[in-house]
Amino acid sequence: MTAGRLLVVDTRTGLRHLSRERLVDVLRSGDLVVANDAATLPASLHGTHVRSGEPVEVRLAGRRSISTDTTDFTAVVFGAGDFHTRTEDRPLPPALQPGDVLALGPLSATITGIEGHSRLISLCFSGSPDDVWSGIARHGRPVQYAHVQTPLALWDVWTPIASPPVAFEPPSAGFALDWRTIAALRAHDIGFATITHAAGLSSTGDVELDTRLPFDEPYEVPVSTADAIARTRTRGGRIVAIGTTVVRALEHSAMRDGIVHAGRAIATGRLGAGTPLRVVDAILTGIHEPGTSHYELLRAFADDVTLSAADEELSANGYRRHEFGDSVLVTATGH
Amino acid sequence: MPATPLTPLRVAVTGGTSGLGLALVHLLHEQGASVAFVARHREPVADVARSHPGTHGIVGDVASKDDIYPIALQILGELGGLDVLINNASDLGPVPLALLGDTACEDLERALATNVLGPFRLTKALLGALAASAREGRGAVVLNVSSDAAVNAYPTWGAYSASKAALRHLTHIWDAEISEQGVRFLSIDPGDMDTPLHARAVPDADRSALKRPEAAARELLEAITETLVTNGTVA
Questions:
Q1: Taking Cα atoms as reference points, which of B170, B173, B151, B175 lies closest to residue B162?
Q2: Residue A243 domain-assigned (yes or no)
Q3: Which ipTM was obtained for this model?
């Protein structure tokens, strides 16, 4: 997964092209790399809307709790068809009402609410958490992408460090990490820590719904990670976030007093131009299109001139833009 | 229930419905660990889960590539993370045991799939969770169940023996590569036990001379606990 390229964006040093394997060369002894260790659910579930008898695809998209024993989710519902049709062109689901039952292979779910849009629902699965895990494991498929030719398997969407299965799409910046890189960090006295953040869908294919992204996302900061961040900052090291979800979690945690607190919380709101970065000094991320919430978050790190210069450089050099593509490392201006 | 060093641990055991695996599930449950176990057949999985309330039974075949991620997903979902993985499920190769010259290639393939590739794939899928556990100070251990056949060349044990030798070596290399990140790997030969697997291998054995799987399970858990203590993770 690491056979990728890396564009280093730093207003002081300008733009630099590297092989992603050399990530460690642009970090400094005493820095701390923080990644999201969420594993990705096979969040796409095909089945039937029982009342109408119509086929549906349910994409689990959000949760209220980071706990893995929850059976309550928010979900985006599509009508007939599958990922071979672009999500933009997918028909609406049948009219959905609270109380409706969705038969999804071995799983059964009841709609508990319509969330302000005809595609967006909250649902509750029947059965124990173990029943739900077994049903999702047997029947769920990873959310697929139009740009990927062969359907993705679960092993394609778990990063090497994947742990609790709470994400709905992969925290894809983490594909830049492999165990060799993690060992190299250690050898260079660069710290490595993780948080768990339930990354939601990056796009629903519905323009109106997409303006509401990202949804609220629960996260957890382990005590060891909060301690490592505090130690790093005391010693003047930098905090390097692997992916937008890490930035969102750490900055949310530090919103009140500038300190990253251990424990569970829910990240709300959007980061963008003008959002002060209290904790994170640099971000390693995939390459995102202007206008997406991921791109918007980068505007907290660098001004528009810098970002559009970087964007031109990426295009001119044929960097791969998608979940499994190349990477950029953006250092926050003034950090 | 008395507090024991294993109380807070999240443990997954493959081959958990018979022999040593069942003894491990039983003992871990008794000690208050949070346990997920894997086995191929729905009925025995349900039976063991029923008789050990609170344990998580998972149906799957570690020899099947397509089962590995669904198994890992359920382990991590149902336990919320993982501290200890015990790769116990084993395939004997040809039954009755056969000289290598008489061993069907398919029997060797199945032994390798169950005893080498399965543990490798499952470990890889769960490595992120194990390393997270180590970083959080909970410790992490992978125990791969070995055999004296992994080091000795016993005639007619070729398929099993070769697969266990490969597993043992894999275990040592895992440990050399990743123990610095706090994930420890153990290869332990539990000895000749009175289990269904042994009965298939040596149908006319004197069962009274064989070790009880419960005794072996106790030794394995002691080794795991000792490794966690040595690595400074259990108070």
A1: B151
A2: yes
A3: 0.95
